[in-house]
């Protein structure tokens, strides 16, 4: 019997067209901007650099920066979007008849390399250390919530009794709330530790949080990995 949490077969995406040179160049510029923003955040701290500083560090013009992002906050929030977008992509590849929460857990399991979660963890850590970055954190989580909402609405559109907006909003909000809870528990245990072991623990906490939600938070289903040692 196949493992329901195994990563989707790469052949499912075989029909996708390869990105054009223009698309690759745009992706490279976007990555250069986010790398520069994170580098300045590490070296100067929150609130101590400008759009111009990011543009200079990325080797682009101020005008080019605004072709990609509306503010320094937006550039910083995009650092975690790579992980979140990858998780959403995995979610979209799950079987259409699979329960939504099971799909969400499977999407996280499919992201097997703890390093994939490092940007999300680092920005969360820096946010906890500085109130100036609270808006950045909110923007990143709202980005994810909006995408989860879209996927949930698509998946449940043909399901009798599960089409109403309240259900979909509550489902998307619950998934994000569980994700944030996992991040908070991880930070309370590990602080700014971004070692491979720490990132692996964070990934497991995210998976376990989805399992708790899927089980209706029954105590018998409480994953042992979420308990304090």
UniProtKB/TrEMBL annotation:
Keywords, ordered alphabetically: DNA-binding, Transcription, Transcription regulation
Claim: Iron is one of the keywords in the record: no
Region entry Disordered, spans: 1-26
DNA-binding region(s) from the entry: 50-69
Domain HTH tetR-type: 27-87
A Pfam match: TetR_N
PANTHER family documented for this protein: HTH-TYPE TRANSCRIPTIONAL REGULATOR RUTR, MYCOFACTOCIN BIOSYNTHESIS TRANSCRIPTIONAL REGULATOR MFTR-RELATED
Stated name of the protein: AcrR family transcriptional regulator
């Amino acid at each position: 019997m196949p493992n329901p949490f195994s990563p989707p077969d790469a052949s499912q995406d075989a029909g996708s067209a390869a990105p054009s040179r223009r698309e690759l160049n745009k992706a490279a510029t976007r990555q250069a901007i986010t790398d520069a923003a994170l580098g300045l955040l590490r070296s100067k701290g929150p609130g101590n650099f400008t759009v111009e500083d990011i543009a200079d560090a990325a080797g682009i013009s101020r005008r080019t920066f605004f072709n990609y992002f509306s503010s320094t906050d937006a550039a910083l929030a995009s650092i975690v979007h790579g992980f979140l977008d990858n998780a959403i992509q995995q979610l979209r590849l799950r079987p259409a008849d699979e329960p939504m929460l099971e799909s969400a857990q499977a999407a996280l399991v499919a992201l097997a390399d703890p390093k994939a979660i490092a940007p999300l963890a680092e920005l969360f850590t820096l946010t906890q250390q500085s109130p100036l970055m609270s808006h950045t954190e909110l923007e990143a989580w709202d980005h994810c919530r909006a995408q989860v909402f879209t996927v949930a609405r698509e998946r449940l559109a043909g399901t009798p009794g599960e089409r109403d907006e309240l259900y979909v909003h509550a489902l998307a909000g619950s998934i994000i709330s569980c994700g944030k809870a996992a991040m908070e528990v991880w930070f309370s245990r590990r602080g700014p530790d971004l070692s491979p072991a720490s990132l692996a623990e964070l990934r497991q906490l995210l998976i376990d949080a989805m399992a708790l939600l899927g089980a209706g938070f029954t105590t018998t289903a409480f994953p042992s990995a979420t308990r304090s040692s």
